[in-house]
Every structure is written in C-alpha cells, then in structure tokens.
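Protein in question quoted for reference:
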Amino acid sequence: METIKVGIVGLGRLGKVHAHNLKGKVANATLYAACSPVSEELEYAKNNLGVQVTYTDYEEMVKDEQLDAIFIVSPSGLHCSQIQLGLKYGKHVFSEKPIGLNIEEINETIQVINQYPNQKFMLGFMRRFDTDYMYAKELVDNDELGDVTLIRCYGIDPSEGLESFVKFAGASNSGGLFADMSIHDIDLVRWFTGQEVSKVWAIGKNTTYKELDEVGELETGAAMLQLADNTMGILVAGRNCHHGYHVETELIGTKGMLRIAQVPEKNLVTIMNEHGVVRPTSQNFPERFSQAFINEANEFIECILTDRQPSINAIDGLESTKVALACKESYEKNQLVTI
C-alpha cells in the first residue's frame, strides 16, 4: 500500500504525541518533515524522531513536493492560516482543535477547504475515537437511553501544569478556557445529540492564581447549555485537579443514564494498603487518550488512501468554536448569550 509522507508543525507536548505516533504507530504513514521556530524542537525531531528534513518556515515546508499531508499542532491562533496554506499547496491537512479563534477567519477557511474537494481535511476531536466514548455513542444511537435530556461534562487538567500555564497565558492567547479545554466537551454534546447549542450561560473563578484575571484567563469555569430541542448541557472545566487528569461524561435519558470514566482510572489495579483502598488515576491527556490519538491518525491516513472524507469536518470546528466563544462572552458580560 502507498505510504503517506507527513510533515508536522509544532512539537510541543501534544505535537510530540502526534509525532511519535506518526513515526511508528500509524499504518501506512511516515513522519518525513517537521517545522518549528524553536531550534531545540527541531533538534528533537532529528535526533529522537528521525525526520529527514526540518524547517523554521511553515510555507517552505508545505512547498515540499515530497510531502503528502500536514499535521498542524501549532498555537490555536495560527490554525486557520496554516490550514489554508497547506491546502493551497496541495496537501491533505489534519489540524488540532480548535479550528480557529475567530468566526470570520473560520468561515474564510471553510470556503478554502471547499475549494479543494479532492483533498482531505480533518479536525482533531480525538475523544470520538476513544473506545469508551465510541461504545457510549453506540448505546445512545441504539436508543438504550431513550431521548437524551441532559449531558454533564468534566474536563480538568492536572494541577502540576497550572503554574506553567500561568506563564504561557501571560505571553500567548489560548482562546480562553472554554475554547482551549471545553471545546472537546462541546463537540461531544453535539456528537451525542445531533443538536446545535442555542443558548449559554457561563461563570468562572480564579483562586490559586489571581493574576489570570489580568490576562482574561480562567482557572475554573462552568457553563450551562440549552440545545435547539431544549436538551441541557453542563460543562465544568479547570486547570487545577490534584488527583490527575479528570475527564468524565454523564448522559441522562428517558430510559436510563450512563457515565464514562466516573473515576478517571489509570488501569484496573486496586491497591489496598495503609492508605485504604486506592485506584490509580490517569495523570495527563497523552496517557488517558493514547489509543484515541493513534486511532484518529489512522483514520486520517486511511481517508487519504481510500479517497473518502473524514467524519469530523470544518463545520464541527465552526459550531464548537461558536459555542466556546459564546461561553467566554457570557462569562465576561455575566449574562445569557444566544447563539
């Protein structure tokens, strides 16, 4: 079978996850090139990933005729322009979420995507490729829960990363807590229900690092969502979880309810000692969703090889970002926002 040569832009924490997967865990793909403005990241790409060529300029990389596809794992504000440039130079494009931070720019990007129907574009909502979420979706689609009436989502990062995030927030724009973190949960709400969000009301609080107030960022936030058919959603997002990485989803329906990762267990081991009965928990997203990241990359490569469009598209990115930005606006204005 044909091997797809991939170039990656961005080799931060998530970029390294994708890069290592592409290096040896994704069928029919090879990591050929890497791009970063950080020299240490390019050295890492050469020495640890075995990439053949490296670039400091993204446009120079997408001009490389040896490349078939691009993985975009750069800062969120660059996604739209890099998606457009990759497509214009004939590449298939996978982009991490969010698709962008500006609705006008996202709409412009969708127009560009539509100009290249023979090229594949996919957005990185990896939870749709997690086996637990896939099983839950099958149950919902098979009417095991009846009509879904409420979805509750927790997405809280480990406390150990909070201090470094505070430094990042002072120099960069994450898009805000809801666009940076809750967007995965927003996508799940849309995926499970097939409905769009019509109204949001969001609140938040900074406690450990009050300086986040000064840069418009949140340590902990929550939002209530009303969907088009009046289904309810509750989002809780944060950056200060002391027991590890807490991602939990609950669906309540007219026939029953289900919970995904009620306890964010690392494995099936139970420890019984002087501390009581202890279940180890996942400590970060690369650990919790390791297989999901591989599954989504395999899906993207397979879409290229079989000439079909990925199930996750730019509209999913647009609608999720609309909701995330509405949550940010609701928090800042302290009022209900209609989408």
Remarks:
- Residues 36 and 56 are 5 Å apart (CA to CA).
- The first strand starts at residue 4 and ends at 9.
- The chain has two domains: 4-119, 128-289+320-338.
